[in-house]
Each structure stands twice: as C-alpha cells, then as structure tokens.
Specification:
Helix content: 25-40%
Strand order of the largest sheet: 11-10-9-12-13-15-14
Order of helices and strands: EEHHEEHEEEEHEHEHEHEHEHEE
Largest sheet: 7 strands, mixed
CATH architecture of the largest domain: 3-Layer(aba) Sandwich
Structural class: alpha/beta
Shape: globular
Strand content: 25-35%
Number of helices: 9
Number of domains: 3
Radius of gyration: 21 Å
Distance between the termini: 38 Å
Bound molecules: S-adenosylmethionine
CATH class of the largest domain: Alpha Beta
Amino acid sequence: MLKEHAFLKREMKISVEGELAFIPIKEAPPRNLLNNAGLGYVNVVEKIVEAGKTIQNFTSALEKVIPSKLKPLIPRSLDIIGHVAIVELPPELEPYAEALGKTVMETHRNVKTVLAKTSQVDSPFRLRKFKLISGIDQTETVHREFGCRFVVDVRKVYFSPRLSFEHDRVSAQIGEGETVVDMFAGVGPFSILTAKRRKKVKVYAIDANPEAYSYLLRNIAINKVDSKVTALLGDIQRLLEKNLRGVKADRVIMNLPSEAFRFLPQALTLLKAEGIVHYYCFAKEPNPLEKAEEEVKKTVAFSGWKADVLYARRVKPSAPRTWMVALDLRFTL
Ligand SMILES: C[S@@+](CC[C@H](N)C(=O)[O-])C[C@H]1O[C@@H](n2cnc3c(N)ncnc32)[C@H](O)[C@@H]1O
C-alpha cells in the first residue's frame, strides 16, 4: 500500500528487529489511508539509520567516489519517469556528474537515461531544462501509474511522479456519473485514471501546451478511455468562452499551483451550485495549510460562494520553506 501510494522511500531497505519491522517512508501517510488498508495501529517513528546498513546502493556507492566534504550534497532522492531518471546536480558536484549518472544506472536496472536539472520550472507550460549525464539521449518514455500508461517526453511536457499519490487520491473520490473538468491536465494522469476507474463519467481535460495536448490524445487512446475523456487544446480562459460554455461540473481539478489563485474565479464558473474543487497552490512555512486556506477564502470573499475545506495536505516541498499544498474544497452557492 505504501509503495502504491508513493510513500515508500525506495533507496532505503526495510529492516527487521525482533518483532518490529521498520519501513522507510518519505512522509507519514494520512491516518485514514492506513485505516482503509486495514492497518489498525501503526506507529510512525524516527529511526536513526546506521551508516551502510540500510542506505542502499545509490547513495552509498556515490560516497565512495565523491570527496567526504561534498557528501552532504549527494542527492538523497531521484525522480524516475519510465526509463528516465532525473537528479538534482548542485554546482559543487558538476565534476562528478558522470560518476553520479553511471551510479544511478548501475543501481536502477530499468533506467536508460539520466538527466540533471539545469533550470527552474518555467511558466506557463511548467517545463525545465535538463542535460544528459549518462545513458542514451531518449527523453520520450512510457511511465506506468496505477495500471495506466502515460507516454511523456520530459523535455516537452510537465510530468512528476511525486504527484502519483494525488492522482490516485483525487480520482478515487470521483463518483459514477460525475462531470469533471481537469483545467490543467498535462498528459492526462488525473483525467485518464478517473476514466479508467468509472463506468460512466464525463471528463474534460484541458491543456494550453500543444505538446502536452498531443501526448494527452495518445494517452487517452492507449488507455482506451476515448468515450469518457474529451481533450481540449488552449488557454482555459479562452475555452471557457467557447468549448466549455454551458458545462456544469461536479468537480474541477486545478493542478497549476503557481497560478492557482488567479484561476479560482474561472473554476467557479464551471461548477454546479454545489461542487468540489481539488486545488493546488504553493504556500510558505510556517503553517502552509492555514495560509493556503486563508488565501482561498480571501479570493472568494465577495463572490457569493461559501468554501469549506474538506481535506488539506502538504504534497511536496517546492523551494526552501515552501510547500505544494493540496486542498479539497466544497463550494456552495
Ligand atoms: C502542473 S502541470 C499539470 C500536470 C498534470 N495535472 C499532472 O498531474 O501531471 C500544469 C499544466 O497546465 C498547463 N497550463 C498552464 N497555463 C494554462 C492555461 N492558461 N490554460 C490551460 N492550461 C495551462 C501547462 O501547460 C501544464 O501542462
């Protein structure tokens, strides 16, 4: 269950001491998830891992190559999308890029391409630049998530395996017969997983990046959800006045955290008199969840809509002391 929901810290091993099993995790899963999995009582503890015992291959192999004063800079995690691995490469580790890339390939047998990030994520299409540090220069790949296949080119479209828990969590809530608008669909993970899981659902998947739209169409076809997902290319503002005119949704998914507040009024025009918005934004420490909630309430203060927060979660860190936050919001007119 932890593996499926992307909580498992794969670069560390599970260890057993007497009757206790220590399972390395990235963060504590929500209690309701543990309960749903039939795990009555689970204690999340912090355990100091003995050096060399549980930290697996990738980091420990690198520690042999990289001078000891640079060890704190060794990446502790990497993103794997299909056969492509993506790592952070701090400038101090540049001279060791090749060794790092080779080590990633040696310790992850499915990886054929290792890329290092060379820029921040850029608006509006949320793309970054990468350089190849090992393997073949083939950045189009097929990524598998919860039984669906997604063709993506990491240089041309946004995709993050760190959102897999959210793809699953949100699509699991969507009921039979609902109408859903996925305003910033990318290559389609929220939309396609939703369609795969329901017999009858109407999903509108929108993206302004022509490359993302083209992969979205391919992914709809290979996952055989053509009858349930309508893909639309263009800026959401423009589509609201054209293709989406008259659409009233039970839910709107807003996965564009950098501009969430700006687009919230548009999302509300798509919603039925009572509906849910799955909302993502960035918020700073301390209390990022409270800050995100306050910002939403301020944004809709004079709109006539009442907002209730049904669920809030820190999804992933996005910058120092800044989090990507998920809020499930029920709006009522
Ligand atoms: C964070 S990515 C979405 C990722 C996707 N939901 C997923 O889970 O993989 C945001 C997407 O919004 C698209 N986008 C940005 N501005 C847009 C706009 N004004 N209208 C429609 N799509 C937009 C970008 O091209 C990008 O693919």
